[in-house]
Design a protein that fits this description.
The chain is α+β, with helices and mostly antiparallel strands and 207 residues long. 38% of the residues lie in helices and 20% in strands. The strands form 2 sheets. Strands 2-1-4-7-10 form a 5-stranded mixed beta sheet, with no helix packed on it. A 5-stranded mixed beta sheet has the order 3-9-8-5-6. Strand 5 and strand 6 form a beta hairpin. Helix 1 runs antiparallel to helix 3. The longest helix is centred in the C-terminal third of the chain and has 53 residues. The protein is globular. About 24% of the residues have low confidence. Keywords: Signal. It comes from Fusarium albosuccineum.
């Protein structure tokens, strides 16, 4: 049971440690996403950080400047109120193209891609330049709006990770202690047996 518990703790910590947050600056220094090409694993988070009024919309390669026909995400126009961050969790490693739906921004090259494969961002951008307009979904979906960056909570996340590591360490120490106690317990039987034999042998000599 102790080994099973340790394995569960280890796998949980490993999964948490392996997830990465990829920060993308939106509209910083012009009509662009920086970086515009992201390599992300399943479980990773893409955090779009809005510096000026823009959107981010998931798209299909063959339909630039238009929302993806299935799945996807849409941030809405940001920043808005206190919200200036939009985070999307990656569920698989399929390529995802995205663009800004503000008028003419997509056509001007404000596009990007997650997990680029054979279809390239350059080809998507070239096709986007030839479109007449951009469109967007009716409502926000597919991500989480926030007023704080994950870097703002990195301390608490680190604490959580550290606490988890401490818990794992404590569990290991407890398991080690239990193992030591168990070892003593296992020795108790043979020791008791030897003691009994010694007493019996002494009694026989007394006779």
């Amino acid at each position: 049971m102790h080994c099973l518990s340790l394995n569960v703790v280890f796998l949980t910590l490993l999964a948490s440690a392996s997830a990465t947050t990829h920060k993308v600056e939106v509209g910083k220094g012009g009509l662009r996403y920086a970086p515009d090409t992201i390599k992300a694993a399943k479980g990773d988070v893409i955090e779009f950080r809005f510096n000026s009024m823009h959107t981010v919309v998931a798209s299909d390669f063959n339909k630039p400047c238009a929302p993806a026909t299935s799945g996807g995400f849409y941030s809405g126009e940001l920043p808005k109120g206190d919200n200036s961050f939009f985070s999307v969790t990656i569920n698989n490693t399929d390529p995802i193209f995205f663009y800004c739906a503000i008028e003419s921004h997509c056509q001007a090259g404000m596009v990007g891609v997650i997990n680029q494969a054979t279809d390239t961002l350059d080809d998507y951008k070239s096709a986007a330049e030839k479109t007449d307009k951009s469109s967007s979904p009716k409502s926000i979906f597919g991500g989480t709006l926030s007023s704080k960056s994950s870097s703002s909570t990195s301390g608490s996340q680190s604490s959580a990770t550290t606490t988890g590591a401490s818990a794992a360490s404590t569990t290991s120490e407890s398991a080690a202690t239990s193992a030591s106690v168990l070892g003593v317990g296992n020795l108790a039987g043979p020791v008791a047996g030897v003691t009994c034999l010694a007493i019996m042998f002494g009694a026989m000599l007394a006779l």
